[in-house]
Each structure stands twice: as C-alpha cells, then as structure tokens.
Fold this protein.
Amino acid sequence: MTLSDEQQIEALRRMWQIRFFEEAAIRLYGEGRYRGSTHPYIAQEATALGVCATLRPTDQVLATYRGHGAAIAKGADPRGMMAELLGKATGMCKGKGGSMHMSQTDVGFLGCNAIVAGHIPIAGGVALAQKLDDTGAVTAVFFGDGASCEGVFYETLNMATLWKLPLLFVVENNEYAISTHVSESISVPNISMRAQGFGLPGVTVDGRDFYAVYDAAGEAVARARRGDGPTLLEAKTVRWGRHSAVAAGPAGANIDKWKLTDPIPRFKQELLQRGVVSEAQISDIERDAKATIDDAVAFAIESPYPELSELQTDMYA
Ligand SMILES: Cc1ncc(C[n+]2csc(CCOP(=O)(O)OP(=O)(O)O)c2C)c(N)n1
C-alpha cells in the first residue's frame, strides 16, 4: 500500500488535532468543566494515525479509555467528541458516554471502553461478524501493555487465530500501567513475542514512527483481508504525563529525553524530506488543526446539557 500526498497531509493534520484536543481536554478538566477524568493520548499519536491510515471507512476500530486519538484518527468529529467530553446534549453520545465511552459508528469508531481489556473480546466478536457476513472489512483493536496481561486477551488471541478472524491487535506499550512499569509485569522484552504461543505473527515497531506503524499495520490488514487471520502489532511508545487527569502514576522523569522522540516533529521532518509538503504548508496545517479544536471547544462550551427528560432514553436495561 502506498499513501498519496493528500493522505499523508491529512495524517499530519489529524496528529495535530489529537495533540490540541488532548491539551484542551486537560485544560478544561483543570477548569472544572467536566467530571470523571481524561486519559491523554499525547505522544502516542503516530500509532493511531499509522494504523488508521491503512483502514477503510467500513473497517471498525475499538479503543480504550485512552481513545480520543483513535477516534480522531478514524475520522470522528472533534465537535461531537468535545461536547461528549463535557457531557453536553450535542455530544456524539448525547453526553451520556463522556471521555471513556465515546463512539461514532458512522465512521467505524465503535468506541472507547473503561474496562481494561474488556473491549478485546468485543473486537473479536466484531471481526467474527465481519467474517461470517463476508464483508471484506477488518477490525483494529487498540489496548495497553497492562491490558495485554488480562486473561481475555489470551482467549481472544487463541480464538481469533483458530478462526482466522480479520483482526489487528494493536498493543500500545507506553511502558506503564498507571504506576506499574512493564519490567515489573511482563516476562518478555517484547509483548509481540507472546504471539508465538498462539500461532499468529507478532511484530514490534517504534510507535512514534508513523511510517513504521503504517507499513506493519498495512501488512497485517492485507493479511486479515486475505482471510489469513490476525496479527499482534506492538507499538512501543512512552507515556509523557501522568496516567490521567486525576494524576495517578509517575510523570516527569526523563521527560526531556522523551520530548526528543515527539512523533509530531519527527513526522513533519519526514514529510519535508520526502517533499510532500513545504514549511509554509506545514504552518497552515498546524493552524488549521488548532482552529478545528478551538472551534470544537467553543461549540462544546456553548452547547446545552441534556434535558432531564432524556435521562432514560437510549438506555439499555
Ligand atoms: C478490569 C479493570 N481493572 C483495573 C482497572 C483500573 N485501571 C484503569 S487504567 C489501568 C491501567 C491500564 O494500563 P495499560 O493497559 O498499560 O494502558 P494505558 O493506561 O497505559 O494506556 C487500570 C489498572 C480497570 N479500569 N479495569
């Protein structure tokens, strides 16, 4: 698969949208504009973009509570997302989902999930439906290193491989599960090695390198579409900040070193070297992404809260 210049430019635009969205989410939380929490995707942007650039609108994506990045990468509307974050009636789930339960099905974003690894078997079910219905579509499921220690992950790896499901497991190894470092919880140097025990391909890439993620995901998606089954793709990255806006887990150590590996300047540099964009175009794209998120923030703040009469609509019991 090769990407057109337009697709690469769109990836940069969305990378910036994710970064600005997350910075705004942290700021708005600090201002007390919403309750609950938010789990920033800052520094992991290249992974969601690299994977989603290989997908079609009809393919499906599921993510964790750290899922704003995957949503934007799959084409979700920043206005609907920001309003959802603030619990407003104009939110993509009418304000009833919040940060950890956003979804926009018309772009193939089946949603975030607050239960660690809870969405992995759901993704297995989605991929099974795609296969049984002979849709030619695939599913990508994003989750963390901590989630890769949960039993349902292994159950899904096993069944998905046995049934050759069109599924891409994307484990985002950002080194921490809240405050537990991977060295304290994972017995192998690369999480992708766990694929060996289940008979599917396991690949590790630098998750901060858009093109590395894109190439590996492209191969995995092609394999899934051919009917050859799932792949476990490990994207290595780092969590810059604390686990969430309520400030659990470590942050700050090595932050200067980490910032040197910021995926956005890296991608920008590569786009310039490849002659895809000029410096002037890059500034325009960044300004445009900032304007999109500023507009989403204003829209969300101005939007009304849901009526009390809406409390029980769209609820399943
Ligand atoms: C089943 C379950 N157990 C525990 C929690 C509490 N919890 C929320 S996030 C988290 C850490 C998960 O870390 P990881 O999978 O590495 O993802 P990251 O937050 O780093 O993206 C935990 C333990 C939960 N939400 N669900």
User: Anything to note?
Assistant: The radius of gyration is 19 Å.
